[in-house]
Amino acid sequence: MSLNVITEAAPAPTPSTADAAAPARTLAWFDGALHDVDALQAGLTTHAMHYGSGVFEGIRSYATADGAAVFRLPEHMARMREGAALLGMAFDPARATDAVLATLRANRHRDAYIRPLAWFGEGSFGLDVEGHTEHLMVATTATRVHLAGTRARLGVSTWRRNPADSLPPLKLCGAYINSILAKRESKARGFDEALFTDAEGFVVECTGANVFMVTGGRITAVTHRDALPGITRDTLIALSGAEARAVGIDELRDADEVFACGTAAEVAPVQAIEDRCYGDNPVTRELAALYARVVRGEAETGRGWLTAV
To answer: What gap in Å lies between CA 294 and CA 291, rounded to an integer?
Structure first.
């Protein structure tokens, strides 16, 4: 497949992490105000610490020719609101949006990973969330995280992904123990990342990224009811016209190219799944290059996805 790649000249380079006059200390937004991140503490009876009763998002901002911009911020806020509603937690997307932008401005971050987190705080022990304080924080970091564009080697996990009829595929804090177990297992076996499959052998996703494959130049987005409906996944389908459908592990292994995608991972080519090694990945590289231009505002496609900081 040949993508409709936009080839206009890129703008002059901009600082990738922060301005020269960046603050000496990192600030985080917490319950309505900015604080020194090292001064913030959580009480020992924090409900989320004991029971995982929180919801978060992973969001990215990018340096563009017009300054920092956050990619698909409204979609992230909408998904976070959905998770908060399941927990019975008050969540105002407009307030959270203002908090994200204020934290980026305060830290003078351009290329940054953004972590908003809403959770139930101090109170008594027990599963009931009523009576616990509710908190919202936003932290930003210039550090790249997760796969970060590397050629990952995937091990097929013996753990199953949380089934959607037990835990909805949202970014609920406690649900990610499932990912931690799978990733620990795969790394102990010498792999970079874990790949979830279901009991029938259909591919679900990686621990924190969706999966695509390329066969005969055609791009396919792996679909599974237990997988997170990724915002990066949705972006890549829109950019490439990829077909979205269920894919078995044998079909995935036979593909010409496989790549993972997510806010943190962006477009990460897969080097191997177990003992199946993949060679050159021209379609993945082309799509990754297009995605990089879109998130930095260098392509007309997707300009409406950027929120100026």
So the answer is: 5
What digits encode the pLDDT tens for the residues 146-202? Answer: 555 568 999 999 999 999 999 999 999 999 999 999 999 999 999 999 999 999 999
pTM value surpassing 0.85: yes
- Rounded to the nearest 10°, the torsion over CA 124, 130, 132, 134 is 160
Cβ proximity of 194 and 155 under 8 Å: yes
Among residues 263, 265, 259, the alpha carbon closest in space to that of 285 is found at 259
38 vs 200: CA distance, rounded Å: 47
The residue among 205, 232, 264 whose CA lies nearest residue 58 is 264
Question: Is the Cβ–Cβ distance between 260 and 209 less than 8 Å?
Answer: yes
Closest Cα partner for 270 from 278, 262, 127?
278
Residue 306 burial (C-beta neighbours within 10 Å; 0-12, 13-18, 19+): buried
